[in-house]
Give the backbone structure.
Amino acid sequence: MKSKYLPLQVEKYVQNFWKINNIFLFKDDASLKKYYCLCMFPYPSGKLHIGHIRNYTIGDIISGYKRLEGYNVLNPIGWDAFGLPAENAAYCNGVLPNIWTFNNIKVMRRQLKRLGFSFNYNREITTCKADYYKWEQLFFIKLFKSGLVYRKKSYVNWDPFDKTVLANEQVLDGKGWRSNVKIERKKVSQWYFKITEYASDLYSDLNLLTEWPLKVVEMQKKWINRLDGYDISFKFGEKFLFFNFFLKNLGSICFLNTVFLSNEHILLNYFIRKFFLINPVIFKKINVVFKKFSFNNHIDLYDLNFLDVIKKNSFLNLFIKIKKKNLNYLFLNLLYNLKSFRKSYKFSLKDWCISRQRYWGSPIPIIYCNNCGVLPENEINLPIVLPKISNMTFTSFSFKKNIGFLNSTCPLCKSNAFRETDTFDTFVESSWYYIRYISDLMVKKKLFKWLPVDQYIGGVEHATMHLIYSRFFHKVMFDFGMVNTKEPFVNLLTQGMVLMGGTKMSKSKGNIADQEDIVVKYGADTLRLFIVFAAPPEQSFEWKTNGIKGCNRFLDQVWDIAFKVKSFCFDVNMDFDSLVFETYQLELLKKFNFILDKIYLNIFKTKAFNVVISLFMSILKMISSFRVNSNVDIFIYKTIFESLLVLLSPVVPHITHYLWSVVLGKHDLIIYQKLPIKFNFIQLNDDVFNLIVKVNNKFKKLLVLSSKLSDSDVIDIVLKDSDIIKFVSSGFKDIIYKKFKIINILVY
């Protein structure tokens, strides 16, 4: 290899080495602590976009640093392969969904490997394979037998474009979450998961998620939405029938003259003409009006303060002699004696509709028998596999016309029966995939060891669908004894979007940067470096290619310094403990220690990887300006540079592997190294100190100075420093100096 950095050659060499030696093969090493790092798996659309790459780069960096920290890391990848997008795309391109999906997976897997991600491909899953959805069919049967699954005919959210039912969470502002088409209301028989049975746990256990972004916790709280109030019993007109309402404020009952019910309410079937309710307190009529509600709306009831109601109401005369503080007590007592109310609470969360009317999904394992009714499939018959179809039949396919699939046998009476023709909502597959990565056979011992997921990474748009559904699945599995934790994900990182022209990159909008073009021109390492340097992980950023060039120049410098280190004649027998350092050498070592502390803070606590990259650049700049004149200088230079390579390796794995193993000739691979530690010499603490220099309270520089300097000498050195003098050339108002710690110059 020439002494010029040629990223494509380097990356091809390194990736071939990884492949031959199975470097990222997952091994469950019982001697090491576990760390489970997981990125939300992709839908195989056919091509990775920059948003994907940002997600997986963040996860790969976290995994890499945890390996350097000594953990046994599980960093798997898989494919969210079922669903309408694949079916619609296959239809438009004249191919079958399975062919479309697996071809796309092949392309995207190649792209992922080209980018050097350390995924454990021996743990790869694909949700459209029967060996995957067999387990969710089994789980469905367990839920059915536990009373957590039911079927009912009701109004549902019908997407006229995708021609399927959507869950409440998949309707955004009255439109389909994918199609963006206005949703219609349609009455059909559907299967539901009884997620409302877990509403209380889902709500209260949000307090356990201390490592989740507060905005996600608040979004889930708002969606589940616990409402405290009262159940009020109203009498229908002259009939001895009663109807219960939930009211947040009891005082509003006195002033209530109209109640609004959904025009889909069951009462509409029994009352053709207008009817009324009887107020249980003042015995006046309350009009009932049927109204069309927006999705996820609640009954509109007035919410007035009771004291305000009393003033406007005929009850004023009755209560005129009673002190105000006793009014609420009297009112509650009156209702109690009438036995018309009780304290209660409710949640906004609705049961999860999981039925979908499409081909490309997991069959629902239900049998309909004329003698025995609705039954779950016999577990020994699982998986219920999708029927094979041809291009000729795909466009007109119907489960109800596919006799081979439809006809079945009752598991009880053995008479002729037929199968359910709906398939699962694709969110069912993504609600438990993190568990399947751990064990093909769902071995409890392995699940108990590796759960929960230590770090989960994905978009904030999944806060009220996928993340709620996953928590529901996990809690049910906990109650079934399948897992040993109440929550699936300990730490959640929601990365920001990559924007182009101010909007999210999207294939449908045509504003996508081709990552393959960037890789060909600059290399995968440069792209990885830039994508985490551009902004903190949680923030969105505008895609601009000029930053890529700067990252490429940085790697060029790393490459050049590696060859400089290689050229040094270094005494390998040098006794580290016996070295005596000069002041300028101590200054460099102290600076490195200080920067290393900041690096680890930003890696493991704040995950501000953009700051970490800046600190790497500071180290490179620091040693680049360090003049090597002695063996001790060589030792310092070489040690700091090798530490920098190890620190860089999770971010830019190809170039660091090559420089470490090929250029510097190291025998142990760089991914098997340990995190660098600070120089721990007594000399470092005795003779010099770190001084943080600020101008108008903003950090400008770190100086390493002799502790023997007087205060006036310290101030004089700071004011004459080449990086500080430009700020104070016009004078300054004040200097605040805390001895051996910080100096703050207040300028005009």
Notes: The first strand starts at residue 34 and ends at 39. The longest helix spans residues 546-567. The radius of gyration is 33 Å.
